[in-house]
# Entry
Amino acid sequence: MMHKHPVRHFSRSALFLMELILAAAFLSLSSVVCIRLYLYAHNLSAASLAKTQAVRESQNIGSSWLSSDGSLADTLSLYLETTNPAEDWKAPEEADAIVLYYNSDWELLPSSQGAAFCMTVTLQKDSGTGMSTLHLTASEWKDNAPQTSCYSIEFKRYDAASLKTASKGSDHV
# Structure
């Protein structure tokens, strides 16, 4: 009978130790899962914020274009008046495409230096139909190139004056 008592005491300690090891393993596993969920939620939140800001900036540029005479230079001048950019930022002369750069807080930058996002603005005019299309694509900016696109939208505008000018030049009767 003496022999069974030390074995019994050993088995209780071994079971307690095994239970403690399993509890620590479960705690470790659940903490890894929680950390991964937290990181996923953080990345999802950052992507959502970037898309929300991209939509806001796209709508501002699109509204500026719709209220201007349809030129990209006038659109950017109107947009720049509302964004209060750095003093050395100037709207380009008439162009068909431009890239705007933004920092991580979506504040307009004069160049790609320190940019976290970019907005590619492209204007296409069809003088035959009088339709103009403004393409806007917001992307992440890394390694001096646009990366993953956050948001893309097109604005269309009909310009009857450009259609009349084009038809006067062709003189079809």
Observations:
- The beta strands are 97-102, 108-109, 117-126, 131-142, 145-158.
- Residues 104 and 116 are 5 Å apart (CA to CA).
- The chain is about 50% helix and 25% strand.
